[in-house]
Protein 1
Amino acid sequence: MLYTSTRDKSLKVSSAEAITRGISPDGGLFVPCEVPEVSLEFIESLKDMSYKERAKKVLALYLTDFSSDEISGFVEGAYKDGKFSSEDVAPVVKLHDNVNILELWHGPTCAFKDMALQLLPHLLIGSSKKTLKDKEIVILVATSGDTGKAALEGFRDVDSTKILVFYPEDGVSPMQKRQMCTQEGNNVGVCAINGNFDDAQTGVKAIFTDEDILKVFDKNNLVFSSANSINWGRLVPQIVYYFSAYCDMMKQNQIQLGDKINFVVPTGNFGNILAAYYAMKMGLPINRLICASNANNVLTDFITTGKYNKNRDFYTTISPSMDILISSNLERLIFLLHGEDDEKVRSLYASLKENGTFEISEDILKKISDVYSAGCCDDNDTKNTIRNVYEKYNYLSDTHTAVAIKVCEDYRAETGDLTPTVIDSTASPYKFAASVLSALTGDSAAGDEFDMVSQLEEMTGVKAPEQLRNLKDKKVRFSNVCEKDMDSMRSVVFDMLGIE
Ligand SMILES: *Cc1c(COP(=O)(O)O)cnc(C)c1O
């Protein structure tokens, strides 16, 4: 199978090249030239397999330049026993009636990004062996919280790689900061910057493309790569859990082979819900995909009106991983829906860059509404949902998951569509303990993050994940802060790598 760019269809590369390059030179995103189709028998055959075995089968359909032994090695490494706190890796638990929760946060950092970032290093090393021979890979990440920690855990002590994460000094939660500053591993670095997330991102992008830095890298046999969510190597692992959830629904006798189900996805950069779309295209019986947003509801408006408009107020919410106005992975959907018309994608994205907005035609909007529904929910409703769901169903959800639960309830009430449903749960409630606690008590929580974790445990009897409880006693390894200009950030990079 070959991959092409959303902005230049004449480009054709292998999956290994798509993964090592991350983004296409024309600024587009890599997509498979065709979507592999599967039969119901294929889905049936996955039913009694473990998560790892299911992953090997689904990934093999996309990574055709890798042998089944190679793929097997990647998957065994990524989801190895002990790394995920649930044996099922991504279990489906029942909320009520035929509404279920797909828990994607049992990995090392308690957020769903582990599902992809545990596998990405293996894919990247495997790919670079084919395309770059023996260079050392340097991963630079700018993070607003979850991605940085998940990438650090994914790449720690992986041979031939080094990883360095920049985060905004005052822009991440205390728990997220603690997670990053105590990171273990011999090839990792973490640095705060005096600036916001955009400053961190701008600095990292400038370093990536600076000619002088690239020369120094070349001389030292080093090469940059990226772990961010537009890399195909982050998207493809996410397709697996949609198949896995469907199989678990069959095993639980909630559905029969061939029955359609709905998925509700708390969405930010549109990666997770795009993986669901690929699963559907492949032949997984899906009725509708429901896109859930917080107060930053640019996608709700787009899906209901066909007009994408990022010129609007930006809200800082209690579901920060969804505080996004430009959902990068949407570009892949736009490309697919326009019949792979790269010229159209170029013009729509030129308009987004120039005016902050673009609009699709009636036909394309119709194609979207055939598959997608969308809804949004503000912080107040998010908190009420956390409390109601806990009181009614004894289920403790995090702030992102609560947005999806609320949007799901609204959708069912408005449409009467009671198709069996799976809601993606993207973070452990303990990762956002302050907000969850205050949702339950009605008071604003204050004080030490670890006190709140204990309070939440006492109140609910739900144990916090080991990985978060242990943080309290871990040694802080990284406490440096640098200025936000590129020279300061470059010095941090060079120091860490021991180059000049
Ligand atoms: C990243 C993230 C999301 C958004 O996922 P996308 O793939 O970017 O849409 C939702 N919830 C949590 C907790 C996340 O970390």
Note: Residues 111-113, 146, 229, 266-272, 321-322, 400, 426-427 surround pyridoxal-5'-phosphate (CB under 6 Å).
Protein 2
Amino acid sequence: MSDFIPVNEPLLAGNEKKYLLECIETGWISSEGPFIKEFEQKFAARVGRKHGIAVTNGTAALDAAVDALGLGKGDEVIMPTFTIISCITQIVRCGAIPVLVDSDPLTWNMDVTQIEAKITSRTKAIMVVHIYGLPVDMVPVLDIAQRYGLKIIEDAAEMHGQTYRGKPCGSFGDISTFSFYPNKHITTGEGGMIVTDNDELAETCRSLRNLCFQPQKRFVHERLGWNLRMTNMQAALGLAQLEQLDKFVDRKREMGERYTALLHGLPGVQLPLAHTDYADNIYWIYGLILDDAIGFDAEEAMKRLASKGIGSRPFFYPMHKQPVLKRMGLFDGEHYPVAERLALQGFYIPSGLALTGEQMERVVEQVIETLAK
Ligand SMILES: *Cc1c(COP(=O)(O)O)cnc(C)c1O
């Protein structure tokens, strides 16, 4: 067997090394260094927002966003069941109630037509999560949020460089968040960003990030925060990566289109949608959904691919099926058939920026061989 093809490898071929060296040479390695502000400003500008608050990871960004909005006991937040656990943890921990909607079978994003029926007098916010490369259909969500006076938290962790009807993803939430984990379009190793236009929310997030130290009485606290500070070294990486974002998005699109061209027509498998009427896919990852008729599930397909040297990852496991949440008494008897099917039959193949054309051909060959049987 030739070399294993991992599911993701980042590309660090720009100014990453130069900026990192600068951190070491100047001694600015903590969260006080100059790259942080520069990265925050340039990233926020890129998504058309007034404020950027760099944090330790995308999960932390969501935690702070939920807390900054003042959500608490008994407040209801409508969100997709098909997402990562990061979206729900702070909602549950603060005593708020996650209210779920199912997914659209083609875009895999939250089915926005299910939102309105879930609204009650306790609903405070909608958390939208753009999944795998296509944005959530935002116009209906914005309309509902406005009519019912709801806040929007926008998880744009997978959407750097993506737009919805020409407007950047990350510009739609009262608070929006990003991740810079190495499998995202741009990476800082670990890292995240909160963006908002609201001065007060931005100030709250900055305070929450820094343990809610007070400017005047540093060690006297009026609120509980976290230490979510990003280091200058992470911001150095982020800045270098941000310079290459357009190139990265072009490359991801090229890769997605290539995969689709090579896999198109393969029986028994559903490929990602290339376009909707509001966006072109940026293929954060390249997902496949097996037809039930194929006779085995995603887990089995991934096992077979691994034995042929091809890395892959399962799709998200829905929130309403999470053992830890079920044990808390959440989502009892609830079913979301589309999300359940995505979790059972969906997985993704190597999609990282460092993937070569040759590797892609090997991946496709093995996928075809695996699924054709
Ligand atoms: C990656 C991701 C996160 C979490 O980001 P981390 O930086 O890994 O904590 C949150 N939401 C979505 C949709 C993600 O893809």
Note: Residues 57-59, 83-84, 86-87, 129, 155, 157-158, 179, 181, 192 surround pyridoxal-5'-phosphate (CB under 6 Å).
Protein 3
Amino acid sequence: MTSNISSSHRARAKLAICRSLAPTLLLAASLLPHTPEAQAAGVTLTISGNIGKFTNQPARSYVFSETEFNALPMREINTATDWTPKGTFRGPLVRELLARVGAQGRQIKFYGEDNYNVTIPASDFSKYDVILARTWNNKPLQLNDFGPFWVMYPIQNMSTSETSGIFIAKLAWQVTRIEVK
Ligand SMILES: Nc1nc2c(c(=O)[nH]1)N[C@H]1C(S)=C(S)[C@@H](COP(=O)(O)O)O[C@H]1N2
Ligand SMILES: [Mo]
């Protein structure tokens, strides 16, 4: 994908337009939750599978609204990645997110909007302070720029052997959905 993380002028212009359309878009989003309108009205994160708490009982899924997500306790990771210079990622701990939905499973599958997915053992989230990053240097991650959510490990505190090999496949970006297995 093309990185655009340091120049977000177009994204900001789009946001201003979206704000003025917010009431219309919110209505559209409530009727059609998976449309581009829903994306503009508010970013959501859906967790499903082996969980014990639901916002949608029939679907057995828990959908975090942008407001609820942003109210979670936040952690910061200051690191460079293969794709970004040294900077600050902020988001809740993945283990905290999993606890909020009563997750029971041993394997956690992260789905990207680009159809990428990766399954990570739940033990990683007790071993490492992994966050689901929502911002980079205080700017929300945009869908065309690794957002809305990016699985981020505290790379700066990890040894070379821990971050070599298949490790980087765990850094799933464009995440919108998580399945507990
Ligand atoms: N959403 C999403 N996240 C992703 C990927 C992807 O294709 N889509 N590729 C993964 C893999 S397999 C690796 S090795 C790293 C690096 O991907 P790259 O080699 O395409 O830069 O990002 C990971 N995160
Ligand atoms: Mo990879």
Note: Residues 9-20 form the longest helix (12 residues).
Protein 4
Amino acid sequence: MSEKLIQGKTIYEWKKEYSLMNKIISTEEVLWTNSRYGKFEDAIKKISLSEEDVKDAEERLKRFAPYIAKVFPETEKTNGIIESPIVKIPNMQRKIEEIYNKEMLGQLLLKCDSHLAISGSIKARGGIYEVLKHAEDLAIENNMIALEDDYSIIDSDKFREFFSKYSIAVGSTGNLGLSIGIMSAQLGFKVYVHMSADAKQWKKDLLRSKGVTVIEYQSDYSKAVEEGRKQAQSDLNMYFIDDENSTNLFLGYAVAAYRLKKQLEEINVVVDQEHPLFVYLPCGVGGGPGGVTFGLKLVFKDNVHCFFAEPTHSPCMVIGLMTGMHDKVSVQDFGIDNITDADGLAVGRPSGFVGKTLENLISGSYTVKDEQLYVLLSVLSDSEDIQLEPSALAGIHGSIQLFKDDAGQRYIENNNLKDKMKNASHIVWATGGSMVPKDVMEVYYKKGKELSSTSL
Ligand SMILES: *Cc1c(COP(=O)(O)O)cnc(C)c1O
């Protein structure tokens, strides 16, 4: 019998080479730590993007702030800057320690991108940034605006008419489409959102209500992206937002780190050599967690440790990083189905750009079962009265796995962090949730309650 080869190797050979591969293929939970993880000063030399690029993105968002404040009144109180709160969640920390029967050293915090204005997910960073960047490029090329202008003039029929000659296309599992659709439609662009089968109905309905064209597929995210890319190739006035490769998306996400630094100072959370920071980031294709990680590394260097989180059925980034194959392999190649309720993370093939850029800066990556996400959802709601969508709970799991899993304990020892853990801060990046309709959230919550009483 001839066996299928994946990049020249049989499944048996892959399993022999990587001790975690068997568990990953069996969709068991794993915590992988990165053997290529290195010092920031060495890693950054190999990366073509720099702090200057992130600062440039930050400045662009400041230029657009007067416009954003005008057209999205919910951003008035932050003067048009789209930023989320960070909160300490001690009740949740105690609950987790109880449930997992393990002590978590340090303090637990939640970065509430779930409550970002305009689109209620981390995509309100990268997605909106790239649309604004494209709009600015077009407006400058056509002498409609200058960098010194007050950008609130963009809220006018003149600009809407101008942008209506152009269109924007994107492939998405839901939230990226939501942020790009809402922002582009507001500016006046024609927008086409290619949605994978995972996308929730309410996300499609909301976009259609804003005049966005939603094209639905029976297949997964990779197909939706491919179709969006194809559509844009045949139209010179159509701009494709490439979630798999875009440096603009990446830089839009990265800006978060500079703002987080200020927020942490305001609540007296210290990050330095004696006070390590751990950050847990839900990962789909990798752009969001990757961009945030890049920014955090620029700001906190070796004092920050970033872990990515994926569903056990969509472990594309952990496979890509572990094998070094990045976007050359998909989870389906290994017989994993990429079917998960965590729609924001339902991606079978990772971004090669993100994996290669950050291969020496990501500390590790772990997987979590859907059932755990629901349980954590209901526990967070009960303990802190914060409601998130299932994808956004993937981060929390890591904060306790670091202590429960041997690989996590080895990471702490190998990085000489053992005696510093009591001073550590753990930031869980809550990537989405505030726009979930009440009745849908109620179903999630009930599911979590039921699962808590049975499985744990
Ligand atoms: C998109 C998304 C992510 C992950 O971002 P990627 O850029 O796809 O890796 C995480 N959580 C939620 C809720 C998302 O929508």
Note: Residues 122-247 form a domain with the Rossmann fold fold (CATH 3.40.50.1100).
